[in-house]
Amino acid sequence: MRILVLSDLHANVTALDAVLEAANGRWDLSVCLGDVVGYGPDPNEVTARLLEMGTKTIRGNHDKAVTGVMATDDFNPVAKAAVDWTRAQLKPEHMSWLAALPQGPLATEGIVLVHGAFQDEDEYVFTPAQALDGLLDSTAEVTFFGHTHHQGGFSYQDSQLEVLQIRPRNSESFAALRVEHPRRYLLNPGSIGQPRDGDSRAAFAIADLEHQTVEFWRVPYDIAAVQERMRAARLPEPLVQRLVVGR
Ligand SMILES: [Fe+2]
After folding, report:
1. Does this model's pTM top 0.85?
2. 1 C-alpha to center of ligand 1: Å?
3. Which of 48, 87, 118, 154 could lock 134 by a disulfide, CB 3.0 to 4.6 Å apart?
4. 159 CA → ligand 1 middle, Å
5. What does each of the 247 residues of the chain score in pLDDT, given as a tens digit?
6. Distance from the CA of 149 to the center of ligand 1, in angstroms?
7. How far is the CA of 162 from the centre of ligand 1 (A)?
8. 198 within 8 A of 246, measured Cβ to Cβ
């Protein structure tokens, strides 16, 4: 079974459509690690795509903030402005779907999904020390996480923790990781709607555990078109500009 792993879509439907075109239907099931909305100009369109695809989705901090499940006290003013704008745009049926999204960890089809850390959905996992708990505690050998918007991950076996550098180069569309039993993995597909790892292309992954592979993909999309919609919506300028640099 090929599982399409989506994360941090952040209301960017142009990036999501480029991802779906690249994946070209060569997947059996789609999952999403949260942050469907927030920052981007297309909250209804992105939510509608996930509903159409029947994507198994857990909530991210932006989904919680927009739906009022979580206070926005910890959000910076730019993120908060985007939350308020998104709230005003969302159709009631999309708002209620987002509000009802389950919290990770969620086990499905042999993998586990979390938004942030395994023990805390709102914690950022950047370092090996932060990754260790998830690698040890997860109920599956392969766990996917998001939230940092950095494609890559960690693996663990025999008390050795490895940082995985598996991002495709600029000239490549994907890089494949070979998954070995009983090694444990904590993998981030990267962000579709607002990458922050220095590569502005939309990021996602396809997991095929029967064939022991996880593909990490990057696809270009029409960033200028998204920026135009963001400016028309008067979303904060720093959010508009960061799409180009991928930071
Ligand atoms: Fe996010």
Report:
1. yes
2. 27
3. 118
4. 30
5. 999 999 999 999 999 999 999 999 999 999 999 999 999 999 999 999 999 999 999 999 999 999 999 999 889 999 999 999 999 999 999 999 999 999 999 999 999 999 999 999 999 999 999 999 999 999 999 999 999 999 999 999 999 999 999 999 999 999 999 999 999 999 999 999 999 999 999 999 999 999 999 999 999 999 999 999 999 999 999 999 999 999 9
6. 6
7. 24
8. yes
Cα(238) to ligand 1 centroid in Å equals 15
**Which residues make Cβ contacts (< 8 Å) with residue 17, sequence separation at least 6?**
49, 221
Instruction: Extract the tokens encoding 2.
Output: 């090929």
Query: Separation of 206 CA from ligand 1 center, angstroms?
Result: 19
Tell how many helices (H) and how many strands (E) occur in the chain. Answer: 8, 12
Ligand 1 centroid distance, CA of 236 (Å): 16
- Which domains are seen in the chain, by residue range? 3-245 (3.60.21.10)
- For 190-203, b/e burial (b = at least 16 CB within 10 A) is bbbbbbbbebbbbb
11 alpha carbon to ligand 1 midpoint, in Å? Answer: 10
CA distance 61 to 58: 10
211 C-alpha vs ligand 1 centroid, how far in Å? 29
The CB-based long-range contact list for 222-228 (8 Å cut-off, 24+ gap) reads 222/14, 222/18, 223/14, 225/14, 226/12, 226/14, 226/15, 226/40, 226/41
Helix boundaries (H) for 158-197: none
Q: How far is the CA of 157 from the centre of ligand 1 (A)?
A: 29
